[in-house]
Amino acid sequence: MDPESPSGAQRYHHLDAARALFMLLGIPFHASLAFAGGHWLVMSGSRDPVLAVIPPLLSDFRMPGFFLIAGFFAAMLLERRSRGAWLKGRAERLGVPLLTGMAIILPLQAAILQYAPRGIVDPAAAAHPLAHLWFLPTLLILCALLAAVWPLVARARSFAAPPVIALAAALAVYELGLTVVEHLLHSDLSLLGGYLDLRSLAIFLPFFALGVALRRSPALWNRFARFDPAVAIIGLLALVLHVGLWEDRSTIGIALDILFDGLSSVCLVQTILALLLRLFSKPSARVDRLVDASFTIYLLHHPVVVGLAILCITAAVPPLLAWVAICLGAFALPYAAHRMIRRSPLALWLLNGVRPQQRGWGLLVGAREGAPA
After folding, report:
1. How many beta carbons lie within 10 A of that of residue 83, not counting itself?
2. DSSP code at position 103
3. Cα separation of 355 and 301, whole Å?
4. pTM score of the predicted model
5. Residues ≥6 apart with Cβ < 8 Å to 316
6. pLDDT, tens only, 109-161
7. Distances (CA, A) of 108 to 94, 103, 105, 266, 300
8. Which one-letter DSSP state was computed for residue 104?
């Protein structure tokens, strides 16, 4: 797709694929936490050295990429809708699944945890009120902030596009500064019993804003559309250093870990998007099915991961084999559930925020747009 040749009949196939990829990577991420030796809902009591690498590896770019794409599509839709209508639509598309998750999915997960053997469940992790749904209120707040400043954003017709490496370095310094602020405030920036997570809001705000800028700036779009070997190499090296420093609790180790994390996040997200543009520039029925199901899969996978992890740990299944089995089950069961859910307009509305009278591809309803102008 030529980013400078808009066409109303085109869709950002590679961004749809990236959004689905980032959401589906939540399955191997959460499945690995039970065996990584840290604190999660379910703990095996041991640390597998291979699976312990997955959390820092995937957390580096998965959610940053998701919020960047969310910012891009938010700006795209705001260009053709009033702020009030758009914000109302966001509240429905994100708020309804959040309420459904809090009313059905999280209680189901809590019930599963109650049947876990003693010593497997981490009470502190289980006490989090939103679990894997934390990103929905964060995204809602970011949407509200964008709607508030949209008149200013709309006036900025063009601006210089800094190199990707410069953006990555700036983000790294920002994340280090945020950690310093948390230390000075002696707070994790969590309010209202965990329902309002200011830390997540502050961490992902720059990525959401970068997505908005990506939509508004053809020059920045072109930078992100081109594969740059230097950016990829720097991102991979920073990722290796970040993973290596993940468990270093010294002051210098923590500071370096944060810097490498921020540097690799932007570089790797840009690299992934550029590669996906080459691979998924044309429509694919298989990819569309995954994109359509990705949100439902993410909502439903978490209690499945928890339940399967409890079974595998109780049965003393080897960690790597257990991880593979959990990943397969946590994809297949929610995917099958989505194929049933999309037959019901009410169920699709409750879990995807798609109005019952709308038909078609769940999350892809109304997603066709041109490229940045």
Report:
1. 15
2. I
3. 23
4. 0.91
5. none
6. 999 999 888 889 998 888 889 999 999 999 999 999 999 999 999 988 767 78
7. 20, 9, 5, 36, 10
8. I
